[in-house]
DNA sequence: CTCTCGATTAGCT
DNA sequence: GCTAATCGAGAGA
């Protein structure tokens, strides 16, 4: 299964929602210290634009944490949330425009034994069905924050998996009720697939 | 310095 | 459906 690693241009889309839709069906690959695992991206959320009240970079807020969102697309933004979870984002768009796509779920396609160990006691269906779970399953830690996605540690591949529009459901984003009207925007993309490859 | 709350999850009722 | 767990970022004094 030869995959084509995404290039810098693939991360350059200036529209956060289009970027979020684009990553559905792509393969998130992680070479961690304890081994390799990967999965098909099945759920994403778009964040970005300085007006998006749900985004960490709302109002062009630049802090030590959000600075990476202003980088040119193609780097990782990992942050710690709720005191115990790490959430993985794909930074997208041009320099100085804060945009990111939160990966909310993947379907594991390699490294099953490793993931089974990392997710001990959890059913396979819930191995990576949630943004915190994705990081737990693939071994993504704060070490991956700001990492280039064109390197050999964490990257995304296109293996020609086409996601039909009729199988993509759009809904408001999860857990952002504080964002007022922005919480209502349908910026969450879910691939409702009956059959995943592998 | 202090306080609040979060782009969540797991476990229990 | 309800909520404890758990801690750093960000804001305000």
Summarize this structure briefly.
The chain has a single domain, classed as 3-methyladenine DNA Glycosylase, Chain A (Roll). Helices cover 11% and strands 30% of the residues. The protein is built from 3 helices and 9 strands, in the order E-H-E-E-E-E-E-H-H-E-E-E.
Give a verbal description of the structure.
The protein is mainly β and 198 residues long. It is built from 3 helices and 9 strands, in the order βαβββββααβββ. Strands 1, 2, 3, 4, 5, 6, 7, 8 and 9 form a 9-stranded antiparallel sheet that branches. The longest helix has 8 residues. The N and C termini lie close together (11 Å). The model has no long low-confidence stretch (mean pLDDT 96). The chain binds a DNA duplex (13 and 13 nucleotides) through strand 4, strand 5, strand 6 and helix 3.
Topology:
Layout: E1 4-5, H1 16-22, E2 27-32, E3 35-48, E4 76-81, E5 85-91, E6 99-110, H2 112-118, H3 131-138, E7 154-158, E8 168-171, E9 188-191
Antiparallel strand pairs: 1-7, 2-3, 2-7, 3-6, 3-9, 4-5, 5-6, 8-9
The structure holds a DNA duplex (13 and 13 nucleotides).
């Amino acid at each position: 299964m030869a995959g084509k690693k995404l290039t810098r241009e693939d991360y350059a889309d200036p529209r956060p929602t289009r970027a979020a839709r684009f990553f559905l069906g792509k393969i998130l690959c992680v070479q961690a210290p304890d081994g390799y695992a990967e999965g098909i991206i099945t759920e994403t959320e778009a964040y970005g634009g300085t007006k998006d009240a749900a985004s960490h970079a709302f109002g062009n807020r630049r802090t030590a944490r959000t600075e990476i969102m202003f980088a040119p697309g193609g780097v990782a933004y990992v942050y710690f949330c709720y005191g115990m979870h790490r959430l993985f984002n794909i930074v997208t768009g041009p320099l100085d425009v804060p945009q990111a796509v939160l990966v909310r779920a993947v379907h594991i396609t390699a490294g099953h034994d490793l993931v089974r160990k990392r997710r001990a006691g959890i059913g396979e269906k819930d191995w990576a069905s949630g943004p915190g779970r994705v990081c737990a399953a693939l071994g993504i830690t704060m070490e991956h924050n700001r990492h280039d996605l064109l390197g050999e540690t964490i990257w995304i591949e296109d293996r020609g998996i086409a996601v039909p529009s009729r199988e993509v459901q759009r809904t408001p984003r999860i857990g952002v009720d504080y964002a007022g009207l922005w919480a209502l925007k349908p910026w969450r993309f879910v691939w409702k697939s009956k059959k995943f490859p592998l």
